[in-house]
Write a structure and sequence with these properties.
Layout lengths: L1 E5 L5 H10 L3 E5 L3 H8 L10 H7 L4 E4 L2 H6 L3 E4 L14 H14 L6 E5 L8 H13 L7 E5 L9 H6 L3 E6 L2 H14 L5 E5 L1 H30 L6 H10 L19 H14 L5 H24 L5 E5 L14 H11 L3 E5 L4 H8 L4 E2 L3 H7 L2 E4 L22 E4 L13 E4 L8 H9 L1
Helix pairs in contact: 1-3, 5-6, 9-10, 9-11, 9-12, 11-12, 12-13
Bound molecules: nicotinamide-adenine-dinucleotide (NAD).
Length: about 450
């Protein structure tokens, strides 16, 4: 079976490589010549663990082009994984998907056999059966049915583990135009997955709603854990990790994503939650739960700022460890670390940062100067107060000597409780969510009641 993938970005490049590694002939398509040239030269167009290795090992089945027409005509299935940026109302904009439908549709006029189009981009509920279907049918001159299939099939991946998540998914979610289209797509996953995931097949709108509901539910869990952490900050003797581990033991709840720490960020969680609320409001349903999750998330940087203010009165240097929105990626979109740097600079604080991968993307995104340390240890050594914003594993291995001071005392505000235990003997280590973050005043006033 031959497959084309339109959009070779953070999701499309790994999908192309995974499919090629499982024996499919794959033609990748992108408007970006650099991405196409990279893939044709056996190089990963984007950074993602294991991607380079998969591309190098499967070059014989993996080519790329800027020409959608030739890719569609040469293949049986086309995945569409192009950007759907959020608009001012929080809804996803389908312009790039519709543009792809036009190119694919026109190409299908030159092809006689059955073709399946798979929308993997995140779209608003109602889009696939609405304007996307319309555009595909109009431009191809075909109707959905025996000659043309359409599926909505989002991937549930996290950047930094995209290849692993594609090989071992929890669930394959398929919104299908008809049984034949769903059967064909399911057969692709039967071959491409290393595990045997649950397969959920349904109509388009249920699949579209399921995709953003999964992320909305997970973000609600994260904001709930952060609400608990905020309470624990102010409650003497309280420890958010003890509470969330016990709460999560209840099989109705579960411990995954139930850690009080920083807020959530990245290209999906924040905007999926906002889109869900926008959808609910637009159709007259109540949106308060999703809105509260978002409000709670936006508060998290202020919570950390409060802890910084409580522990650093003078003009000391604030060290920020972690700018990527999560470990194992350079992506800083909606990153809490970057938001904290921005707020500190706005407040006139002196800041130095370190991140293993995200410094160039942070510099590009922030567009204002900030000092960069040469290593995590260097960041700790030079700062009066350090904030751990991203749980990169290397931050838990910073040598103890970096925390020692000949004069004064270093404070570490660790949102993730990852600082080496020995650091507490030479530094004032404050674990957010453990009753000491916003200073003694708040805690003692609560304790006195
Ligand atoms: N990145 C994630 O973690 C993630 C997770 C789940 C869902 N998604 C969704 O997947 C979609 C793509 O996300 P991404 O992160 O891979 O985006 P990306 O920006 O990294 O990549 C998209 C690629 O599509 C290309 N492109 C745009 N229009 C095109 C066209 N008409 N023809 C060919 N190529 C075209 C762009 O040049 C770009 O290389 C979005 O809808 C996003 O919401 C992303």
């Amino acid at each position: 079976m031959k497959i084309s993938v339109v959009g070779l970005g953070k999701l499309g490049a790994p999908l192309s490589a995974v499919l090629a590694s499982k024996g499919f002939d794959v033609v990748g398509v992108d408007l970006n010549h650099a991405y196409v040239d990279a893939l044709n030269a056996g190089k990963a167009p984007v950074d993602e663990p294991r991607l380079q290795e998969l591309i190098a090992a499967n070059r014989v089945r993996l080519t790329a082009t800027t020409n959608v027409d030739e890719a569609v005509v040469a293949t049986d299935i086309t995945f569409v994984i192009v950007p759907t940026p959020s608009d001012a109302t929080g809804r996803f904009n389908n312009a790039a998907v519709l543009n792809a439908m036009k190119s694919i549709g026109l190409a299908l006029r030159r092809k006689e056999t059955y073709h399946l189009v798979v929308i993997t981009s995140t779209v608003m509920p109602g889009s696939t059966g609405g304007e996307i279907r319309l555009a595909l049918e109009q431009h191809s001159g075909r109707r959905l049915g025996p000659q043309l299939g359409l599926c909505y099939n989002p991937e549930f991946i996290a950047l930094g583990s995209v290849v692993r998540d594609m090989l071992q998914p929890d669930m394959i979610l398929i919104g299908e135009s008809d049984k034949a289209a769903g059967d064909l797509l399911e057969s692709v996953y039967a071959k491409s997955c290393d595990n045997t995931p649950a397969v959920r097949r349904m109509n388009f709108v249920n699949a579209e709603l399921t995709k953003i509901s999964v992320n909305t539910f997970v973000t609600t869990k994260i904001s709930y854990a952060n609400m608990l952490a905020d309470i624990c900050d102010r409650l003497p003797g309280a420890d958010v990790d003890v509470v969330t581990q016990a709460v999560g033991t209840d099989s109705r709840i579960g411990t995954k994503y139930l850690k009080g720490a920083t807020g959530y960020g990245g290209p999906c969680f924040p905007r999926d939650n906002v889109a869900f609320a926008a959808l609910a409001r637009a159709i007259g349903a109540r949106a308060e739960l999703a809105e509260a999750t978002d409000t709670m998330n936006r508060y998290q940087v202020e919570r950390v700022l409060g802890a910084v203010d409580a522990h650093l009165a003078d003009s000391g240097l604030v060290g920020i460890l972690g700018l990527s929105y999560k470990p194992d990626t350079a992506v800083v979109e909606e990153s809490q670390g970057l938001a904290l740097v921005e707020r500190l600079l706005d407040l006139g604080r002196r800041v130095i940062v370190y991140d293993p991968e995200a410094i160039p993307s942070a510099q590009h995104a922030l567009r204002r100067p900030f000092d960069v340390a040469t290593s995590a240890a260097d960041c700790v050594q030079r700062s009066s107060l350090v904030v751990v914003m991203t749980p990169w594993p290397e931050f838990s291995r910073i040598p103890i000597d970096a925390y020692r001071r000949s004069t004064g005392r270093l404070t570490v505000i660790d949102c993730w409780r990852s600082t080496p235990a020995a650091a507490s003997s030479v530094a004032n280590v404050v674990f957010l969510g453990q009753g000491a973050a916003v200073g003694a005043t708040m805690a003692s006033s609560v304790g006195a009641q």
